[in-house]
Amino acid sequence: MKRSFRELSVLGALAAVLVGMAIFAPAFFSPQPLLSLLTREAPTLVVACGMACVIITRQIDISVGSMFSVCSVCAGLLAARGWPLLLVLPASVALGALLGAVNGLLVAGLRLPSIVVTLATMVTLRQGLNLVRQGEFVNLPDRIQWFGLSQMAGQLVLVGASVAFLVALALAMRHVAGGRFVYAVGTDAEAARLAGIRPQRVTFLVFVFIGALTGLAAMMNLAQSPQVQPLSGAGLELKVIAAVVVGGVAISGGRGNLWGAFAGLLLLACVSPALIHLHIEAYWEKAIQGAIILLAVVADGLRTRKLNR
Amino acid sequence: MSPAPLLALRQVVKNYGGVRALRGVNFDLQAGEVHALLGENGAGKSTLIKVITGAHQPNGGTLTLAGQRVANLTPSSARALGIACIYQQPALFPDLTVTENLALRLEATSASSRIDWPARRARAEQLLARLGAEISPDAEVRSLSMPEQQLVEIACALGAGARIVIMDEPTASLTQKEQHLLFAVVRDLRKNGVGVIYISHRLEEIFALADRVTVLRDGQSVGTHAVGDIDEAGLIRLMVGREVAQIYPAAESAPGHAVTLSLRAVGCRASGVHNVSFEVRSGEIFGLGGLVGAGRTELARILFGLTPADSGEITLHGQRLTLRSPQAAVAHGIAYVPEDRRRHGVVLELPIAHNLTMAIHRRFFPTTWLRFGAERALALDFIRDLAVKCAGPDAPGGSLSGGNQQKVSLARWLATEPKLLILDEPTQGVDVGAKSEIHKIIRRLAKEGLAVILISSDLPEVIGMSDRIGVMGGGTLRAILPGGSAPHDVMAAALGTTERGAA
Q: Is B100 within the bounds of a domain?
């Protein structure tokens, strides 16, 4: 109870927003717009799961946006060439894992700081993609959209799959030995090494993991539109990191969990529709999201100060 | 001694919330005196320092400086009154030079004022010369050794005109030679009329250096003695408040005959260890003595696969091993309890139970699916078995005292059911009570047939605990002596014939 106070407070804030909406703008809860909102956030949720693992390991990956764009474009091109969905999906995941492995090799193998490594790969991938594609859109065949299902069914599949994935991963982080390795490496890599854990291997795998999840998320996004924009992943990294931090995952590693990241993501995602329903100018969205992030960071700061006293 | 002491504390009381950290301490310090402060961890030494340096306000009692009563001492007013504290880990700026560090401490300049570099440098040079330190004022602090950094700290204190210098375990990370240098500086301070409050766990240092010693126990001063009037046993009696009949538990059984570990001409160029040969039998405690930097931890790191050996032969139970990683060492039944448990032993944020199973995931959770019930039961077993004082298996490692953290670190490795247990400074920074408990645990493990390598810089501990003592120096094994050898013999072997003149 005491340990999960931080997560519960985010959940409380989310509940407060939802109750407020129920009173002042009950239209917010009409099923179709709500399902659309959740569908839009489903790919972000999958990437946020990976980001939570990366940050718990005391690393960061800011190249997810660029990896997302690259995977989207490549998957789109493959689909346009007539590859079946069952091959495009694993191809996208594998490509993401490969890009993540590059980050992982540089960070874990050469022991470089992850913020610099992923900044470099972020810029390289983005500019490389621009150069090759010249901003061209990829038109997708119809069978990709909603996986060939009806829109309603496709949305339900996406939302259901992402939430199921979150639940499975959250349970695994607690109940599978690998999850505990992630926490141990994030709190004290040297102590973990002396206890027979291989911190560099854990770090490498975490980067591969977030890469693979980004490839999966790219596919989940692809299914929602008839075209692929070349910059579809722009800004994804900020959105995801913000959600994870708001959800109580400590940027200093070793603390936090996926439930909190989920709550943080929903809280941030609610801002935009809430503003629309309350007839407030949309310009406020970023400012309010920024304020929420600031509040979360200040809360963490105050809490660590209290612990250290 | 003069009637008005430099510093006098009378009935000082300090409470933290409901905890009474100091409950009536009397202490005085004369000019030109080295006054040692001794006590178990938690006896109130650090709190007393915080009161004297003005970091914390006492709740009762009086503090008198050179006959003047002082109230509401703050860190800056304490500095202005000539009180300086040298901590174990010097708090210097590693990327700045010695001159710049001294200037930052000693000058109250505004950001826009012009800097008089020649004067700064001259002062630094003069202060260092006063200490007899061969340190360039232009050296970056990063490039200095730990004792050199301590000397810079002392230079800061001198430059600030300190009349009272507090030294908190200054020799904890020094080699024997560096200690002698430091002692000379302390004696020099004393000669110049500075009062030194000297805190150390090492009794022999206190006898070598101090004029008087005050013992703290449970937040009270329980006695002040001239060092000539009291012996080690007497001091320990005062510290623990009871007679310690025998400091080291006697061996209950002779070591077995089966050779567990055998080293033949083992070396590693990267860590400077060369040509080490010895055997450890089951049930034997093999002590590794020597000075800091002799290569003992380096040898342990070879045996644990952290820095693999590049020459020689390591055999365990007759099987030749190549140890290239900690995982390989663990798989062969080698356990290493590292020194500096705070940094590398116990993960302070994780619960005790997680800490305990950290090294046995593969065996304890064969399907990698964690079994919390079994883990909890194992943790409870060890908590009972080793008498770990804690709130329960879910309490974070950081909530434990040093001795209990060490027990958790030890338990993690006992859980691997090792054949060979390497203990690196297992009682460093641990209070006397927990120390003797840890000694008893080590004895019991040996009796159960474990081969134990005990690395310790505490000479009486190595001598009292070991069946045989391997003495290291300069990266190699210099001698193997029987347990209970005279300290002089061990020290002579550690220094070696060639280094004896230099040290």
A: yes
